[in-house]
Amino acid sequence: MSKPDEDYTQLAELDRWIHEPARLAIVATLAGCESADFLFLLNATGLNKGNLSAQAIKLGAAGYVEIRKEFLGRSPHTVYRLTEKGRKALKQYRSQLKRLMAQLGNP
Amino acid sequence: MATTSSPISAASVDNYFHRALRAWWADGLWELAMAGFWAITALWLYPLVQTLAFPSWTWPWPFITKQHINPLSTQITLWAIGLFFIWMAYIFLAWLLIDRVKRRFVAPRLGDVRHTFFLPLGRGFGLIFFAVYVLGCVVLSILFWKVKGGPHLFSVFGIASFAGVMYLVGRKFDIRRFRWIAIIGTVLCVLAELATTNAVFLNGPKHFMDVSPLYGNPSLPCLIWVGILVVSGFITLREILRLPYVEA
Prior knowledge:
The complex is a heterodimer of chains A (107) and B (248). Helix content of chain A is 63%, strand content 18%. With 107 residues, chain A is an alpha+beta fold. A three-stranded antiparallel beta sheet of chain A has the order 1-3-2. Chain A is elongated. Chain B has one domain (24-61, 71-241). Helices cover 68% and strands 2% of the residues of chain B. In chain B, helix 3 (29-53) packs antiparallel against helix 8, helix 5 packs antiparallel against helix 6 (153-172) and helix 6 (153-172) runs parallel beside helix 8. The A-B interface holds A 21-22, 24-25, 28-49, 51, 75, 77-79, 94 and B 1-10, 13-14, 16-21, 23, 107, 110-116, 120, 246-248. Strand 1 (35-37) of chain A pairs antiparallel with strand 1 (113-114) of chain B, so a sheet runs across the interface.
């Protein structure tokens, strides 16, 4: 059996940028494609506009998501792309979560 | 738009990943592109299989020559290899075209999502597909052998390969119509093969349904796939085009 402080360290090591549910939904959706616009993410994640926009900006600030703003005619169009850093972070997060869940399965 | 405070509780991380991938097939454009793929394959395979199966068969216009002998094996090989290059060119062009059409017509309604040329389907997908394909080939070959006196090899490859793809993609990405396409397509293709007659080796085929018991007529299942995909693709696309433009 591992020590309590080791267990806590494992939990604390989870990437907080991704661990938040709304941000995880955005990152996981973007991992399945090359890029997606605001409307697609809105439909795919089920978040509301304000939350999606705010969380995407946070992911952008962390360097996990690249945000490109452009105009299609006169309408603003925002395109999101998962960066290499974001892809690696998601991969690491998944393996950490898997490990933690496996431990939970064998108490 | 519904507000979800914790979307992770509603669906797993994999579901979000799959949702983005699923968008590639969701609008029916891929089915229309695949219909083109099978139409080309049907046209190309017909002379190839007839040449392989029947010594008396002559190539249609404009390939008719004054020779009274069969085409050389090198000519047959080149014809077969040619199909590979045509497939590659078609797949690449179709991918570009789908991307353009999606951006123009689908994106304003459902959102714009771009995919890589090679979709990340997962490690086990190829392996499971191979197993399904081999199993399908074995079962259908035995069936045709028992009922029609020959395994109908090329037809069997065409039926099993595509039915396997449609069923597995439909199952993995929860696209119900794909599973139906796989089932309906398999049933129709098998019934069509069972309705064929066995051509006399020396005389050659009398008509389209008169086939070689060994090779079958692969154009038959190919054209059945074309029909099903065109219908399914147009119905799906029409539903998408009826949706209003959305301002995000």
